[in-house]
Amino acid sequence: MAADLNLEWISLPRSWTYGITRGGRVFFINEEAKSTTWLHPVTGEAVVTGHRRQSTDLPTGWEEAYTFEGARYYIN
Amino acid sequence: MDSQIPYDDYPVVFLPAYENPPAWIPPERVPGPDYNNELTQFLSQTITLKKPPGMIPDSDAHRAGLQEGDQVLAVNDVDFQDTEHSKALEILKTAREISMHVHFFPYNYYHQKERTVH
């Protein structure tokens, strides 16, 4: 299932940890640099969460979603 | 010479703004909405509902573990992510037993809720 949470990203380098926002998006926390990012510190890719995704068409880390007006947009 | 593009005829579409990840806060933080790393509630699960005559769907779904914000990925092996709403409803209404694969992802749910409240 494309939207299943793939847990490969959970292994992180030293001084890094992760969090999950209220909306369910995964982000990464660098305790040394005191910063956060959507991108995994090793792979450099965002964690695919639950937005609708066409896995065969989109590059890795991109997701497709729709506004409530029906416009398609992409999330990196 | 009419060189002006009739922009007034174009539909207005509002795209979501880019969202930054939550700002860093000290490690002594108490887990909260934006600093939750408890994964289990975000993993997908399969919920089975039986529909004997007279059952109230809402209470049945609630007892089975469904919650607001659950994204329905598949029902009875039909991929709901690419299914039209009308067909999805038909499947849910006609199936005697529903095996529902769901994933808690309230992102769009919260956005929609905010829109509705306005």
TrEMBL record, chain A:
GO CC, sorted alphabetically, is: cytosol
Entry annotated with the keyword Repeat:
yes
Superkingdom, natural source? Eukaryota
Principal place where this protein is found?
cytoplasm
User: Mind listing the UniProt keywords for this protein, alphabetically?
Assistant: Cytoplasm, Phosphoprotein, Repeat
Q: Where in the cell is it found?
A: Cytoplasm
State the InterPro entries in the record: WW_dom, WW_dom_sf
Q: Which residues cross the membrane?
A: none
Q: What is this protein called?
A: WW domain-containing protein
State the organism named in the record.
Macaca nemestrina (Pig-tailed macaque)
Automatic annotation (TrEMBL), chain B:
Instruction: Give the signal peptide, or none.
Output: none
Q: Which InterPro entries match?
A: MAM_complex_regulator (IPR051109), PDZ (IPR001478), PDZ_sf (IPR036034)
Classify the source by domain of life: Eukaryota
Instruction: Provide the PDZ domain boundaries.
Output: 55-95
**Pfam families in the record, alphabetically?**
PDZ
Q: This chain belongs to which protein, by name?
A: PDZ domain-containing protein
Which species?
Macaca nemestrina (Pig-tailed macaque)
